[in-house]
Amino acid sequence: xxxxxxxxxxxxxxxxxxxxxxxxxxxxxxxxxxxxxxxxxxxxxxxxxxxxxxxxxxxxxxxxxxxxxxxxxxxxxxxxxxxxxxxxxxxxxxxxxxxxxxxxxxxxxxxxxxxxxxxxxxxxxxxxxxxxxxxxxxxxxxxxxxxxxxxxxxxxxxxxxxxxxxxxxxxxxxxxxxxxxxxxxxxxxxxxxxxxxxxxxxxxxxxxxxxxxxxxxxxxxxxxxxxxxxxxxxxxxxxxxxxxxxxxxxxxxxxxxxxxxxxxxxxxxxxxxxxxxxxxxxxxxxxxxxxxxxxxxxxxxxxxxxxxxxxxxxxxxxxxxxxxxxxxxxxxxxxxxxxxxxxxxxxxxxxxxxxxxxxxxxxxxxxxxxxxxxxxxxxxxxxxxxxxxxxxxxxxxxxxxxxxxxxxxxxxxxxxxxxxxxxxxxxxxxxxxxxxxxxxxxxxxxxxxxxxxxxxxxxxxxxxxxxxxxxxxxxxxxxxxxxxxxxxxxxxxxxxxxxxxxxxxxxxxxxxxxxxxxxxxxxxx
Length: 525
Fold this sequence. Notes:
Largest sheet: 16 strands, antiparallel, barrel
Number of domains: 2
């Protein structure tokens, strides 16, 4: 714009000069003036053209300079963004240690917790739901209070990239809930570390395959997203045994998962088998003796026994993340193994069981209110429930008889603020009776001929086979510090648990337990 005004000014100046020269010329020279005017005009036009060329050149230089300034500003901005990203990346990577190209991430927390129960279980921070005492127990008429730091946890994650689309990782996690004979409350509480999770993974991005080998949460445990390790959706409780109705295990396994665009997932897992038994108090009167377990040998505590398994538990799971919530469905296959005389001499026998389950995690109000549900039903699935009801019992002929069971858990978690969560859950595990009679002798599980007459009498006789265990739980977590030094939080949990027995001679007893927990936890990493 300024160059155009300059051009107009120059042209106007030249025109005025020409007009003044013509006006000052005498009339006698008028004929010559025409000739001079034409020459002058031609000269002026040439000068004007030269000036216009100069102006155009200056204008081009100004535009080039302006473009250069824009490019420079853009380059400066790009450098600033890159620098900011580099700072953020450096800050993020500062959470990891690097060794020979492998990234190491530390994790875990330090815990100081309290436990109060209205009836003695003789348990630490992990409750024994199927051992809540009936009134015939003398110590069951007394309350229980303990302090514990044993749920403190340490973990280490090692990650490396074999190639841009192939990743390997190893993870180890331990707490102090192991209970060797030297671990007591007398003077120095020498509780030993306990293996929680120890496994390796390999992930191939292009085919969408994920391999896991080692001890981890069972594949049937609810996840919060996909089928991804370290993403299990355990309830937010303090009790280390979790809640009745929650389906889970932690055991050695070999797992292969296929993802379809990280939206749908299909996995299969072969997992370490183990069987929990209910042996009737009259089992010795059965016509056939069954061999179903053995004394623990090398590598195990000799005070324990091991069930006789030889086929792994097989779990298949399908999971979906369609955009709202997470959904799962799974199937479980199990084999139970024993040896007995079936009429033609002793022989080995397999009996099969298993079940199916579903689960979901829904953000009812995004980042404010979450709903969680899981359920499972089948035969011989007791060990996969928090209440630890038995898997199987025995028929009179010595054969293993899987017990039917179902388990349900539902709950809500309210994120009241950035640092305060409130949760409420309700869960139940229920078994059906699997009872038999041989020549008037009561056998099996839940037999109505079992003696429950002394269940409400201190020191009385009580068989009291558990029919169901249910619990209501309410608690909160308050993160009172979150910053560059980690996170510190305080939580409290109250639960009311009821253990109900099958009806027998003398009635169907109940045992109730009110529990209150508190927990201080510091997460330094």
